[in-house]
């Protein structure tokens, strides 16, 4: 309903602008003696309308005030100094110029709103392209960008960088016993548990939603990553005995593999993921 009303206002503004333009042209052509003066005023009126189209109504109204003041001063000056007598038609542009500006505003208002909405949707899509909508975690697109930064920091400052790959054991089998909504909630719960197990300087990613695969970039060495692994498993065990026990019909178990970044063997973010996933074979 609101959209239809906005479209109607746009159509009215467009038709009003066309109608006013014809009236102005007819007025300019009606008196050959003042043709040049009125042509100049028509040009100024259309120029203000064009500026309003590309800016906003506020600037258009300000320009209209300036135009009206200048036009009224012109009429007053020629009347007093030159004794020129003006008829009621002399005040035509004092009325027509604001009307043209208003018509353009009505025509462009909905267009401006659509442009703003499109920009908002475009920004939102760009944001969602790097964020998982259910867990609000960064996805593999973000991981590719961030991994290059972390790897550069690790190499430049000689800081150890580790990648932890976390998978849910028997995830495909679990999906047979749980509904899709329950599995979505499970991913959110596991994501929250993983986030609570790392430091603020570490970053958590949802690398594969279908396979329930998370990645954790940690600025730590192998012993440090093993501490994080043990901490995660302890918290999962606690959750299985408490909140998970009442929410899910099966136990949630994780497999975790860790790999320390080596610039000699790891050339791309996918190399890093692949080598970390190989470490999952040792978590039986």
From TrEMBL:
Highest taxon of source:
Bacteria
Give the keywords, sorted.
Answer: Membrane, Transmembrane, Transmembrane helix
- Reply yes or no: does the keyword Acetylation apply: no
Membrane-spanning parts:
12-29, 35-54, 61-84, 90-108
Q: Which residues form the GGDEF domain?
A: 131-280
* Protein's name in the database: GGDEF domain-containing protein
Annotated SUPFAM superfamilies: Nucleotide cyclase (SSF55073)
Instruction: Reply yes or no: does the keyword Iron-sulfur apply.
Output: no
